[in-house]
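Ticket #4471: structure export looks truncated?
Reporter: QA, pipeline team
Priority: medium

Steps to reproduce: submit the single chain below to the structure queue and open the exported record.
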Amino acid sequence: MEKLPKEETVSLRNKHVASCVELFFIDDPLKIVRGSGQYMFDEAGNKYLDCINNVAHVGHCHPHVVKCASEQMSLLETNSRFLHDNLVIYGKRITQYMPKELKICFFTNSGSESNDLALRIARKVTGNYDVLVLDHAYHGHLTSLVSISPYKFAHPSGDGKKQWVHVVPVPDSYRGKYRSTEYSEDQLSDLYFQEMVKVVEEAEKNGRKICLFYAESLQSCGGQIVYPKDYLKKCYQYLQSKGILCLADEVQSGFFRTGSHMWGFQTQSEDIVPDFVTIGKSMGNGHPVSCLITKKSIAQKFGEKGLKYFNTYGGNPVSMACANAVLDVIESENLQKQVIEVSKFMLDELEKLKQKHEIIGDIRGYGFFIGIDLVKSKKTREPAIELARIVLKLMLNAFILLSLDGPYSNVLKIKPPLCFNQENAEHLITTFDKILCDLKLKARL
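Actual output as written to the record:
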C-alpha cells in the first residue's frame, strides 16, 4: 500500500506540490494509505475513526460501490455524448427525491462546476448579472465561485467583495446580529429575512439587477450553521416573486446527512422549491461526480439562447455507476434510520457535556452535520481559538479525526460517513469528555 517512506512522500510533495495546497494537520500531516467503512489507516497501520469525511458518504471503499465502479470501468469509460443507461437511470432516480418541479439534470465533475454552471444559466435566462449570498458562505474553488464566497474573498488574503456580489447577514442564532437568547425562532426567522430584503432593496436602488441567490442549505464552512425555521422558504418566495432564481447548495448537506430529510433545504419546510439544487462530494462516495438539477422551463430557456452544454467527463459511465451504487447502498442499508438514531444519541450526550464544560458554548446541527462551538466563556462567547486547536490535536492523538471551521476556526465539525454507528458515537463522546476534563484539570494546576 505504501510506495514510499513517509519522509520521501513529504519531501516530494514539498518539491512538486504548491505549498498553498492545503493539508489536514499541517504540523505533522497524516499519510493515509487505506480506508474501510468509517475508518482510515495510516502507513504504520494506525486506525483512525473518521469524523471528517463527508465525501466517503456510505463508508470508505464500500464493496458495492467498488464492485460497480470496477465492473463499469472494465466495460466502457467514455464521454457523455453517447447514450448510456447509467446516466438516464440516475437522472430518474435522483429526481424522484426532489420536488416535482425539479426534473432536469446537468452532470458535472464537482460541486464547484455545478455551482458555476448555475450562475451561467441564471445570467443567461434572467438577463441579470449580480449574485446574492450569505455571509461566510463557501460555494467552490473556481474563480467565479471564490468571487461569491465570503469565506474566501473576505479572508485577509482574499480579493475582497466585487460590486456585483451582495452579502446578506447569515442567520446565525448563536453569534449573529440577532440571537436565540433574545428572540424566539419565529422572530429570528423574520428578522434575518428582513435583513435580506434590505440588501436586495439597496441593490435595486443602486440600479443593480440580481440573477441568483446562493445558499448552502446548512452552512458548513461558516461553522455548521442551522437557520431558523422557514427562513429559506421566506427568502425563496420573496426572491422568486421578483424573478430572482434561488439555488440550494446541497454539496455538503445532502443524501440524508441531516437524517430527517434527503436534502438540507427540506429541513426548513416540506414545500420549499428552489430553482436549482447542486449535489456533489458524497454523490459518488469519493469518485468525482456532481449534478445540477433544475426546472424544465429554466433548462429550455437556456437552450433557446443557442448554447449547447458539453462536459467531457460529466455524466460518464463510470461516474454514474458510482453514483447509482451510492443510492443503492443508502436505500438497501437503510442508512437514514441509522443517522436518525445515532445522531439523536450523540446530540443528547453532547448537550450533557455542554452543561458540564464551560468551553462548550453551543451544540448545533442535524443528523451527522454537527458543530461544537468552543468558547472561553459561555457568558461572553469569546471564541476559544487556541484551545480549539489543542482539542483537535488531542482528539487526533486519540485516533479520532475532526476538523475546525467557522469565522474564528473554533467550531469542531462532526461529519462522518453515514455508517458511523452507536459504538463509534459512544467512543467519540467518551474521548471528547475525557480530553476536556484533563484540560480543565491542567488549567487548575
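Status: closed, not a bug. The export was complete when the record was re-opened. Leaving a note from the reviewer for reference: DSSP finds 13 helices and 15 strands in the chain.
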